[in-house]
Amino acid sequence: MKKERPFSELIPFLPPNTFEEVAQYFQNHTIHLTLTRERKSVLGDYRRPSKESPYHRISINATLHPYSFLITLLHELAHMLVYLQYKDQVMPHGNEWKMQFQKMLIPYIRKNFFPKDIEAALVRYLNNPKASTCTDTNLYKALYRCKNNKNGWTLLEDVPIGAHFKIANGAQYALLEKRRTRYRCQDLNSGKMYLFPSIYEVHPL
Fold first, then answer.
1. How far apart are CA 73 and CA 177, in angstroms?
2. Beta 31-36 vs 56-61: how paired, if at all?
3. For residue 15, is it left (φ>0), alpha (ψ between -120 and 50) or beta?
4. How far is Cα of residue 149 from the mean position of the Cα atoms in its chain?
5. Are 90 and 82 in contact (CB under 8 A)?
6. What is the mean pLDDT of residues 50-65?
7. N or C, where is the chain less crowded by C-beta within 10 Å?
8. Is-contact 15 70, C-beta < 8 A?
9. What is the pTM assigned to this prediction?
């Protein structure tokens, strides 16, 4: 159930000492921020004002680690600022958005807001930001490994060749070999072969 809360309650979701920098966007613009349950297909979302909802709307997965939460929030705020300047005249993740996102992230670089491995991956990512951090392998791995992953889940590239693993739907596979950025795996039930990306989340058996 949706419930309005003081904006200061956002502090635990962000890395230490980053709240004041983020708060300025909410002080200067009317934004409704919604924290949602985990969504596998999207980390955050921006919706422009409409007649029915005359304010900017941003939703962020509340389950994100603070580093991912901050990057995702800035990603969506960049969409807002691009909309305010260009309306619908530019592509959602075109050069205008990339330049705006870079401008917003740069103040957080070299100030110890991020661990060194995440910052290094973030600097490389900023050379050409993608529509999602999940599409940048190095940044995704750095952010994933900073989480306190429980119950044994890990990235497929951390599973030894020859080992067995399961995925979220319960299907079980044998890891056979690496092929560039993907791994050839065999379904233990059907015997069929599949290629999985190295950053696929799995549970070793």
1. 37
2. parallel
3. beta
4. 16
5. yes
6. 92
7. N
8. yes
9. 0.85
Q: Is the pLDDT of residue 89 over 90?
A: yes
Question: Phi and psi at residue 85, in whole multiples of 5°?
Answer: -90, -40
Pair of tokens at residue 166: 């399961």
**What is the C-alpha separation between 107 and 169, in angstroms, rounded?**
40
Q: What is the CA radius of gyration of the chain?
A: 19
* CA atoms of 40 and 195, how far apart (whole Å): 20
Query: Could you read off the pLDDT of 136-183 as tens digits, one per residue?
Result: 888 989 998 887 666 889 999 999 999 999 999 999 999 999 998 899
Report the run of H or E that residue 196 belongs to, with start and end: strand 193-197
Angle of CA points 74, 35, 53, to nearest 5°: 85
Return the pLDDT at 128: 85
- Distance, in Å, from the CA atom of 49 to the CA atom of 149, rounded to the nearest integer, reads 37
The mean pLDDT of the chain is 91
